[in-house]
Design goal:
With about 325 residues, the protein is of the alpha/beta class. Helices cover about 50% and strands about 20% of the residues. It folds into 3 domains: about 100 residues, Arc Repressor Mutant, subunit A (Orthogonal Bundle), CATH 1.10.10.10; about 80 residues, D-Maltodextrin-Binding Protein, domain 2 (3-Layer(aba) Sandwich), CATH 3.40.190; about 100 residues, Periplasmic binding protein-like II (D-Maltodextrin-Binding Protein, domain 2), CATH 3.40.190. The strands form 3 sheets. It has a 5-stranded mixed sheet, sandwiched between helices. It has a 5-stranded mixed sheet with strand order 9-8-10-7-11. It starts with a helix and ends with a helix.
Length: about 325
């Protein structure tokens, strides 16, 4: 009798699971996969374009459904349980199939023999490996060229025809260009959690100063200037033309650095210092692919589509 009751209970549980695995549940499992792939709930929220609290609620709902913990959280890090791996091993092939279907539905791959574009070092680090892979898969005979420079230099190269396109942040006076948005980001102040100054919170900015981007000959972008104005009367202690240098100094605990969220959250070695309530502007900005109107639009669209896919995957 006990065995019969046990089998009956198990059957009821399986029936409940079958009912639960609808479209909404598949989306929740996709969120779980995002959390594990990105390594944090914050990054998953950014990729899924939802709030961190929504990510937490999704995780709690999944754990309630499966009656087992799926993630172990400790000091800001997450570790998937064996149950989480077992579940995702079943559903990940479906996610991969959806990605392939998405690729098939995209616009036709243009005939490109040479794609020469420019961007910043911090963007190239994030997209170049995936872009090379996409070229080998979709355009095996094409060659790829990359120039690293600041915004004004990149726009000059595009105007002169030295580059077909450039991947840059928001700037004024782009009316003469063909423009496609690929990503939205924001600024923040970041420091390593493994160094004593992180314990000071916002006071670390006043006590140790902060690092920021060096203005070019045309100054800083409007969104960056507005963000920095909120720190007045404090001025940058350290200036660099490279976000990667600013990131490295923050990781070593030497200074607090102003960074794009995408750059800061590339791995789990930095935390964001929460600003005071007086902060109204978080430095929101777009990443754009720009080209001359007489440039091959199919080529520009291909770069924009691949850049958007790679940046939003992080």
């Amino acid at each position: 009798m006990e065995l019969l009751c046990s089998l009956k209970s198990k059957n009821v549980y399986n029936q409940q699971m079958s009912r639960d695995l609808n479209v909404d549940q598949i989306k929740k499992l996709w969120i779980l996969d995002l959390i594990i792939q990105s390594g944090s709930l914050k990054k998953a929220a950014l990729q899924a374009k939802v709030s961190p609290s929504a990510i937490s609620q999704t995780l709690a709902s999944l754990e309630e459904t499966f009656k087992k913990p799926l993630l172990i959280r400790d000091r800001g890090s997450i570790t998937p349980t064996q149950e989480a791996y077992a579940i995702l091993n079943v559903v990940r092939p479906a996610f991969e199939a959806f990605e392939r279907l998405k690729d098939m539905s995209n616009s036709p791959i243009p005939e490109i023999s040479w794609l020469n574009f420019g961007t910043y070092e911090s963007v190239a680090i994030d997209i170049l490996p995936g872009l090379i892979h996409a070229f080998r898969e979709k355009l095996p005979k094409a060659r790829l060229g990359l120039r690293i420079a600041r915004t004004s230099q990149l726009l000059t190269m595009v105007r002169k025809g030295e580059l077909c396109s450039a991947l840059i942040t928001d700037v004024d006076d782009l009316d003469r260009f063909y423009v496609k948005e690929v990503y939205r980001d924001r600024l923040g102040l970041y420091i390593s959690p493994n160094h004593p100054i992180a314990k000071l919170g916002w006071d670390a900015v006043e006590k140790f100063g902060f690092g920021s981007l060096t203005p070019s000959k045309d100054g800083l972008p409007r969104y960056f200037t507005k963000f920095l104005k909120q720190l007045v009367p404090l001025k940058p202690f350290f200036l660099s033309e490279s976000f990667e240098t600013l990131r490295a100094t923050a990781v070593e605990g030497a200074i607090v650095s102003v960074l794009p969220h995408r750059v800061a959250m590339r791995s789990n070695d930095l935390i964001e210092l929460l600003p005071p309530k007086s902060f109204k502007d978080v430095g929101e900005h777009r990443l754009l692919v720009v080209s001359q109107h007489n440039c091959d639009k199919e080529e520009t669209d291909f770069l924009a589509e691949e850049a958007s896919r790679l940046l939003n995957k992080q």
